[in-house]
Amino acid sequence: MFAQLTVGLNIVTLILLLFILYKVKSSIDQQTNYVLFGRVLYATAFFSALALVEVFLASRSGKIFLILHLNAECIRSGFSGIISCLWFIYILSDSDKNRRWIYHKKNFYIILLPAYIFGIFTFIGIGKGLVVGIDMENEDLVKGPFFSAQAIITYGYYTAASFITLLRLLQGKFSKSTKVTKTLFVLLPMTAGIIHMLFPQLVVIWTGLAILLAMEYIDFQEEKVSHDGLTKLNNRRSFDSFLKQSITGQYFSVYLFMIDIDYFKHINDTYGHLEGDNSLIEVSRTLQYLCSEKKAFLARFGGDEFAIILMNASLHEAQDFKNEIYLIFASKDDMRTSDGRSYRIHISAGFARANSANIEEILKNADEALYIEKEKNHINLKHIL
After folding, report:
1. pLDDT, average across residues 337-348
2. Of all helices (H) and strands (E), which one includes residue 271?
3. Residue that wins the pLDDT comparison between 217 and 190
4. Distance of CA 340 to CAs 105, 235, 333, 343, Å?
5. How far is CA 296 from CA 48, 228, 284, 318, 321, in A?
6. What does pTM read for this prediction?
């Protein structure tokens, strides 16, 4: 009965995970937290497929199938700690501060160390019965003396991830729309672990993770409707809607600012995409601070471009605001990478006034103003890079 239930659950799990993987690959931006999400998806899908293989091999008799079953079980045991560690890292990487800490020097490898050591130990011990062995007389697998270490390491990571999520829930760090998902982040892995300990033949942990990943993906999509996933700013869709409303009436007092990070590709290529994410977050926070005391709408326009709609302003006020943007970035400290290197964020900013209710016209004019600024600034920055 347990074997049939395991097969049914894991087939559904695998179909669900493959569907989400297809959607993730085709529609989600490759920001650091989404890359981590994709890795957890791949690992969970692999283990769900492996669970199906194990059920098939366990149902067959003969020495060859028994040996194949042993190898499949050792693969599962050896890698289970690594996938649970990936889940822990994904939960821990919920903020840019934590991501910086994880990838600082050797922290990432220290976190993975227990899982790696046990994985190597498991593969070395194949055939020696250290984690899983063979009872040739009864043609069955038996637990080795170190089998319990697998459960301790695997569920240790899951428990730690659940505890961190619980703390963040109690601290009110999640939005109202994601609280249900985050609550299940606490409950489902623990519940699946208890079921697995009570009924070892019923493998439900991957089904539990698949449900959580599906809910997380839905939250991603809901957030993307109006907000950028990385910076939490308004996204392009919200920007287009707000700009259209803003220039419908008194368009002559509306100014559109376009801001771009100079040599952003150089930051990504030199310091890595994680640092590219951090620079985008830093720029967004700085612009949020500038806009906080003005009647302005801030959005991530796309890539390394940001847009600000400044309302009820004069030409003199718009020019002053542009100067403020340059001054605040010029006064900021250098950014520091996890390995101790430093770099400076340089930006270009151009603006245009709405001369009519034509959205394409103001976008074109603001973009041309930005292009002129970038050309000028890149000439000044060439000797730095």
Report:
1. 85
2. helix 264-271
3. 217
4. 9, 32, 14, 10
5. 49, 17, 14, 11, 11
6. 0.64
